[in-house]
TrEMBL record:
The lineage of its organism: Bacteria, Bacillati, Actinomycetota, Actinomycetes, Micrococcales. Belongs to the RecF family. Residues 2-361 form the RecF/RecN/SMC N-terminal domain. This is DNA replication and repair protein RecF. GO terms for molecular function: ATP binding; single-stranded DNA binding.
Length: 488
């Protein structure tokens, strides 16, 4: 898999940009602040519908513009697919795949990327939400249908939190007029919903972590050559022996996890009513990172923390590589400036054979010789080298900022449900430029019997299309226990 062409309209600092790319290594070189990261951020947005730099979409739209357009031509197995996204602050974003209007979530899986940037140091030094986001984003990259499950969980959590606040004795006096408090039966209904979808999400995270652990240990040794072993422990919000069993790696079914979550909710019902917030569920969990027997957070040096964060992303890269049978696009954003010469050389040796590697650097000499491929010079809002020789995407019309508006004037196609099985789109053969006549499964990644079971497993709405924030974390439990690590 590789990105053959990137087109931008009013994205960040770029009024417009047309960048032709090839397989192999491409390095964007320019002074800090000229827009190198904006380009790879756009690539990451095409893949994940979110930015690795900001929690909302509004900063992605160039100052003074009403919307931004990101478009890419993705080549996989010799076939090309065109994916387009329109970002409109305050409104639902829109998407098109091969000129067909879709919901944004339905283009997930067309392009897959693994991005490592200085912000990823937060995986080691940051809050639990950073590590939950890492696991969930990797889940969606591996199987795009999990985006729907995660979105459903967030909606149920918001509704349950609202009911807990309304039922809280401390807040009862604030209810308007004679509005009755929610009954215990109403809360139990939402307990069941949250436990059902939460059990699916927790099961998926634990299974993902089992696959990731050996790759992480190997990647950390390759990057750092350190004596300590990189370890991970999943710390859940379950109670007593159940929490210990999860930490010890005991295998549970989704149904067993649902029952354990329900039991924990009932045990903490009084605390939840006092606080008016959900204290049990995947939104309260953490991925504990350790070097040997010591927690990495607070004990690891800066270099060890960098190596651990990098190893997490390399492990994710190798996991997707194995699952997909081809390489996701690897993005290294301003990474080499933070590494010493030994770590630079080790990293270069690990990624040089990737199908496509995109690198940004302020100083070209920071990039090891093993990664010397195509070079792009970047000035403010302008890519100097590697610029397309034609005004538009080769084989496609120039970027049209009004195309999405015209889509609204056409009869709407029946909505596809990303949780009910693979969706197919016609693709283009790169060698001939003609349609292949063969459908391509853009939700590849394998089925899962735990996904989409029951009404709450279906796509009941598309909140995630409004901003990338719902794809990053959602789980809007902003109130935390005083002794919770989230609160520090």
């Amino acid at each position: 898999m590789y990105l053959r062409h990137l087109s931008l309209g009013d994205f960040r600092s770029y009024p417009s940009a047309e960048v032709a790319l090839e397989p192999g290594v491409s390095t964007l070189v320019g002074l800090n602040g000229v827009g190198k990261t904006n380009l790879v951020e756009a690539v990451g947005y095409l893949a994940s519908l979110s930015s690795h730099r900001v929690a909302q979409d509004a900063p992605l739209v160039r100052h003074g513009a009403e919307r931004a357009i990101v478009r890419g031509a993705v080549v996989r197995d010799g076939r090309e697919t065109l994916v387009e996204l329109e970002i409109v602050p305050g409104r639902a974003n829109r998407a098109r795949l091969n000129r067909t209007a879709l919901r944004p979530r339905e283009v997930l899986g067309t392009l897959r990327t693994v991005l490592f940037a200085p912000e990823d140091l937060a995986l080691v030094k940051g809050d639990p939400g950073d590590r939950r986001r890492f696991l969930d984003d990797l889940l969606v990259s591996r199987q795009p249908r999990w985006a729907g499950v995660r979105s459903d969980y967030d909606k149920i959590l918001r509704q349950r939190n609202a009911l807990l606040r309304a039922a809280s004795p401390a807040r009862g006096s604030r209810r308007r007029g004679h509005e009755p408090a929610p009954t215990p039966e109403t809360l139990e209904v939402w307990d069941d919903h949250l436990a059902l979808v939460g059990g699916q999400l927790l099961y998926a995270r634990l299974r993902l972590l089992r696959d990731l652990r050996p790759l992480l240990r190997e990647a950390y040794q390759e990057v750092s050559a350190a004596v300590g072993e990189a370890r991970t422990t999943y710390r859940s919000s379950l109670e007593g022996e159940a929490a210990a069993a999860v930490e010890d790696g005991e295998v549970f079914t989704p149904e067993e996890l649902r029952d354990l979550l329900l039991a924990a909710m009932h045990a903490r019902r009084g605390n939840e009513l006092d606080r008016g917030v959900s204290l049990v569920g995947p939104h309260r969990d953490d991925l504990v990172l350790s070097l040997g027997d010591l927690p990495a957070k607070g004990y690891a040096s800066h270099g060890e923390s960098w190596s651990f964060a990098l190893a997490l992303k390399l492990a994710a890269y190798h996991l997707l590589r194995h699952d997909l049978g081809d390489d996701p696009v690897l993005i290294l954003d301003d990474v080499f400036a933070e590494l010493d010469a030994r770590r630079r050389t080790r990293l270069a040796g690990l990624v040089a054979d990737g199908e496509q590697v995109l690198i940004t650097a302020a100083v070209g000499d920071d990039v090891p010789e093993a990664l010397r491929g195509a070079r792009f010079g970047v000035r403010p809002g302008h890519v100097e080298v590697g610029l397309s020789s034609v005004p538009g995407l080769d084989g496609h019309p120039s970027l049209d900022l009004d195309a999405f508006d015209r889509d609204e004037e056409r009869p709407a196609a029946p909505p596809a449900d990303s949780l009910v099985g693979p969706r197919t789109e016609a693709s283009t053969d790169v060698s001939t430029g003609e349609p292949t006549g063969e459908p391509e499964d853009v939700t590849a990644g394998g089925g899962d019997p735990t996904v989409g079971t029951g009404a709450v497993g279906r796509d009941v709405a598309d909140d995630a299309s409004t901003t990338g924030a719902a794809h990053r974390e959602g789980h809007e439990d902003h109130e935390h226990r005083p002794d919770d690590e989230d609160a520090r």
